[in-house]
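User: Once you have settled down, look closely at the record that follows, taking as long as you need, and be ready to discuss the fold:
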Amino acid sequence: MNPELPAVARKINALEEDIGRQCQQLTKFAASEKLATALASYDKSVEIALVKLQSEGVPATVAKDRAKGMCESQLFAVKSLEIKWKAMQSILRATESRLNGQQSIYRHFSEI
């Protein structure tokens, strides 16, 4: 038995625990519905601003763009949450790749 085998097994266990924590964070984030709420709030604000601009006689060709511009802070919140979600997923995939590598090393050492 290779003397490095127990150390690799500990790394595998640590990575599996890390993946479990990351999955819990993703689940918690998805369950919080922050992204969906922020997106709905942005869409609603754009529609309200659009109606307001149209009632003021702003041409329809520019009203939608101006309405979106009026709601840029809410769009920033939506984009920030989207980036957080994608970053969490990327970190999880990277950890899974590290786990895969450690498992390959373990298999190699156990065959020696």
About this structure: The CA atoms of residues 12 and 76 lie 38 Å apart. The helical segments are 5-32, 34-55, 60-70, 72-111. The chain has one domain: 5-111.
